[in-house]
Amino acid sequence: MATYALRRVLQTIPILFVISVLLFLMVRAAPGGPLTAARRNPNISKEQIEAIEEKLGLNDPLPVQYGRWLGSMLRGDMGDSIKFRRPVSEMIGERIPNTLTLVGAAFFVTLLLAIPIGILSARKPYSPFDYTMTTITFIGQAIPVYWLGLGLIVVFYVALKNPFTGDPLFPVGGMNSRGQEGNPLDTLWHLVLPVTALSLGWIAWYSRFLRSSMLDVLHEDYIRTAKAKGLAERWVHYKHALQNAILPLVTLIALDLPSLFAGALFVETIFSWPGMGRLFWDAAKGRDYPVLLGVVMITAVLIIFCNILADLVYGWLDPRVKYD
Amino acid sequence: MKLKLFTLFVLLGLVLSACGGSGGEPASGGEGGGTVVLILPEEPTTLNFYLADAAIVRQVADSTSMTGLVTIDETGNFIPVLAEGLPTISDDYLTVTWKLMADLKWSDGEAITSDDVRFTIEVLSNPDSGALVGTSGFDLIANVETPDNLTTVITYSEPYPGYLDQFAYGLFPRHATGAPEEMANWEWNRAPVSAGPFIVSNWESGKSITLTRNPNYYEEGKPYLDEVVFEIVPEPSAQTAMMLNGEGHFHLWPGEFKADYDELLKGKAQQYLIPGIWNMAIDFNLSAPFDGDPTASAPHPILGDIRVRQAIAHAINYGGLQQDVLQGSVGDSTNPFAYGWYKCDLPRKHGFDVEAANKLLDEAGWVMGDDGIRVAKGAMYVEDGTRLSLELQGYTAFDPLQLTEEYIVENLKAVGIEARIQNYDFSIIFGTFEDNSPRAVGDFDMLIFDRGFTTEPQGYNFDAYHSSRITTAENPTGGNYFRWVNENVDAALETAGSSFDLETRKAAYCEVGQAVLDELPQVYLYLFQDNYGIADNLEGYTLNTWGSMSWGIQDWKFK
User: Fold this and answer.
1) What is the CA angle B70-B71-B75, rounded to 5?
2) Which residues of B touch A47 (CB under 8 A)?
3) Residue among B10, B20, B133 whose CB faces A160 most closely
4) Residue A32 and residue B35: Cβ atoms within 8 Å?
5) Distance between CA A6 and CA A9 in Å, rounded?
6) Looking at beta carbons, which residues of chain B come within 8 Å of A154?
7) For A206, which of A108, A114, A166, A305 could close a Cys bridge (C-beta 3.0–4.6 Å)?
8) Closest to B531 in 3D by CA, of B321, B212, B200, B255
9) Mean pLDDT across the stretch A181-199?
10) SS3 B435
11) CA count, 13 A, side-chain hemisphere, B422
């Protein structure tokens, strides 16, 4: 297992190299550049723009620019943002805790609800509970997150008020009220709507997945044998069926883990949550190459490592899987 | 089940809002005091105006670091700020003498002196400072003398008409910044020691920027407000919802049209429109496109005939476009000089008149074809049988532009002209000659986009209309994309650039404006307006085309 893990990690080095080249080229292939907006600013002369491009090294041949970027990346320096003139690592460092809070909470809520819903639906398929949950999850999957987010704001920020204070029931966005920074209950209050918007789709997806996986397992011979032996139904379901049914879910979760860092653009935008998704989007719009590359490289690394993690955890959970 | 879930939600909200406290602290009123919340759609990258290429920077910087010797008021005139009065200028226009007001202090308590003016000049004239804007004319400063702490005497190498505008965007404190060539990385850029009414107390990336009163602000008793919070709220509906709940007081660029906004926020806030600087026009290519020669030598096969351009101008329903399509969110504009001291009130020479358009096209040798599009029969530069079909190029992802294009396509079709919309990314339309941008290399028929310039219009207009500025391989940065050659215009632009008398300059610009209306290298459609949503309980604000949302914030107070 250790050899396997080491081999997988070593394999990522060439993969990451290829990814870095591709990402660098893709980012630079997009039309325009960080100074495009400046080109139509009547206050800025074309000569000035060219001087700044020269200063930023944007006119050097691409391989030179790539080499320079890779060199500093290898030294752990992601460079400075062209727009903000701040170190990219500092900007990403500010956003990661915010994104972890939001997406982590949504993940937690998802697992907390999706697993029981999935199990109960599978234990009593085609029951009223199953039908209700099927309906709700289909709605959850079908509603665009943007629409859901706006709907939540309309209902819980605009329409409903706290009858005692007259304040909105939930805040429209942000992470904290003014003067309440560091108050965990206040952060929790700000988390409710974005987490709801983010997790509804995930709950739907995960619970459906677990339900069908569980139903498959329940038709296996060993379950029938266990039941025939006279084991209690509850024991059969939770000990024998769930352990096998949950395996594919592990892969799914591991593959979704990188979004803990990559952020959730739509929800962050609707609820003014200063996370990685918005950092990425703003950088993409402004062609802020160092920030853009920093964010996508971190995401790429995480996706690769979470894939490895999924494989390793899978082997650990399922003794049938052997790594030689 | 659903009902239970909903109840749970409501209960959760009640409990948490009690523990967490609400966001909207009461905006305390009375004489002075209170916190005002301004809503921004995106985060400014810096508070150093000179490093910025985005209008969003000014929205915040105007309340702190952008306090200069003068400013431009809502009528477009320069008024003194840190200067005792407007400077004196010598008879040869080469020596300008500025006097600071006495006893001025920076927000950290240090005195503001003529040495800070000198330092500002040192920074902005340094080609390695990394400054993007506001550096015009600093290379013409030959000498700076500071005979005393309040006086700065600036000598120019040649007369420079923009000598006031140069000092309207803020001074740098020498003691609290850094080396000029390091300007891009100064810590000052995010936490400026300023002469303005407010100073940054907290900047939370992606969330908000909070400013508090500058204790050393020069105007006695001002600012009235205690605190100013710029909240970064990217979603337009969430911005309006904040205004609805009274959690926002000043809303930058609301997404709704004024009528809808005022109806929705009745009794809470209203939307105000002021003329902006962005002027929408269709530019014609007067030279043959796609022929590998971007000069004006060979005329455009269709647009080279002025009668076709006149017919296009006549075919457009300007009133319908401004009032119905864009719902009155824009103002009328007929020529490049649509605002400011150089504003020229010139009537539209070729107004909406379908009959006149048809007559001109008939005369020009374009007869109506079977499919409703005209074909050439005796036209000036094309073979008979050529369809009257033109490409209309614009840029993507800007709704008003797309609505305008679609409407104009219909307008032109009504007189038998086919316009084919071809939109590119912003960066392609505004790209360089080297990038093969269609505008620069002349590969277009009609271009539609908005353009604007500042209180000092010479640079932009000389570049756009002077025949020496036609874009070619030898002159790749030239801005005369029409390939328009007009000797009178050249002469007028030279006059405007060499005079200090505003009346003379304005007359020269209006001559250019009239030539645009006569010869139609372009057709002006409308002028964008800046829109702000403002809470009804706020007063003392001044909306200024030349300023940003926070211009004059020292005078704001709650009713």
Assistant:
1) 130
2) 477
3) B10
4) no
5) 5
6) 241
7) A114
8) B255
9) 91
10) coil
11) 17
Looking at residue A245, its amino acid is A
Contact between B308 and B323 under an 8 Å Cβ cutoff? The reply is no
3-state helix, strand, coil in chain B (%, to 5): 30, 20, 50
* Look-up of token digits 């919309």: B421
**Partner residue opposite A85 with nearest CB, options B17, B46, B425:** B46
Burial B330-364 (b: 16+ CB within 10 A, else e): bbebbbbbbbbbbbbebebebebbeebbbebbbeb
**Rounded to the nearest 10 degrees, how much is the dihedral formed by the CA atoms of A228, A230, A231, A232?**
110
- Per DSSP, the three-state class of B299 is strand
Q: Which residues in B143-164 are b (16+ Cβ under 10 Å) and which e?
A: ebebeeebbbbbebeeebbbbb
CA A308 to chain CA centroid, Å, is 17
| Nearest CA distance, B61 vs chain A (angstrom) | 15
Query: CB pairs below 8 Å between A and B: how many?
Result: 196
**B14, B20, B427: residue with CB nearest A36:** B427
Q: Do B237 and A269 touch (CB under 8 A)?
A: no
CB of A299 closer than 8 Å to CB of A261: yes
Name residues whose C-beta falls within 8 Å of residue A226's C-beta, 6 or more positions apart in sequence. Answer: A236, A240
Q: Which two tokens stand for residue A178?
A: 């003014």
Contact A204, A217 (CB under 8 A): no
Which chain A residue lies closest to B453 (C-alpha atoms)?
A42
Angle between helical axes of A88-123 and A128-142 (0-180°, round to 10): 150
The Cα–Cα gap between B143 and B185 comes to: 27
Q: Which residues contact A319 (CB under 8 A, 6 or more apart)?
A: none
Tokens of A131: 């039908």
Contact (Cβ atoms closer than 8 angstroms) between residue B70 and residue B83:
yes
Spatial distance between the Cα atoms of B526 and B401, rounded to a whole number of angstroms = 11
H or E, element range at B395: strand B389-395
A166 touches B at CB < 8 Å: no
User: How distant is the Cα of B174 from the closest Cα of chain A, in angstroms?
Assistant: 20
Nearest Cα to Cα of residue B278 among B531, B59, B450? B450
User: Contact B521/B234 with Cβ under 8 angstroms?
Assistant: no
Question: Are B20 and A282 inside 8 Å of each other by CB?
Answer: no
Residue B250 banded pLDDT, cuts 50, 70, 90: very high
Q: What's the complex ipTM? A: 0.89
pTM for the model stands at 0.86
> For chain B, first and last CA: distance in Å?
47
Please tell me which of the candidates B2, B22, B477 has its beta carbon nearest to residue A165.
Answer: B22
DSSP 8-state class, residue B419: E
Distance, in Å, from the CA atom of B316 to the CA atom of B326, rounded to the nearest integer, reads 14
The CA distances from residue A29 to A26, A62, A270, B226, B395, in Å, are 5, 10, 29, 48, 18
Q: How confident is the model at residue B120 (pLDDT cuts 50, 70, 90)?
A: very high
CA distance B451 to B463: 13
The two beta strands, B446-451 and B389-395, are parallel
Q: Which two tokens stand for residue A67?
A: 């080499």
List pLDDT tens digits, range B480-511. 999 999 999 999 999 998 888 889 999 999 99
Amino acid at A281: W
R_g over Cα of chain A: 24
pLDDT digits (tens, 9 = 90+) for A96-120: 999 999 999 999 999 999 999 998 8
What Cα–Cα distance (Å) separates residue B275 from each residue in A32, A131, B49, B230?
29, 58, 22, 24
